[in-house]
Amino acid sequence: MIEEQTQANRRSEAGAPHRVTGVGRLLIAVYGVLALAATGRSFVQIVAKFEEAPLAYSLSALAAVVYIVATIALIARGKVWYRIAWATITFELLGVLTIGTLSLIDPALFPHDTVWSVYGRGYLFIPLVLPILGMWWLARHRPASAADTIVPASGEPS
Question: Is the Cβ–Cβ distance between 122 and 113 less than 8 Å?
Answer without folding.
Answer: yes
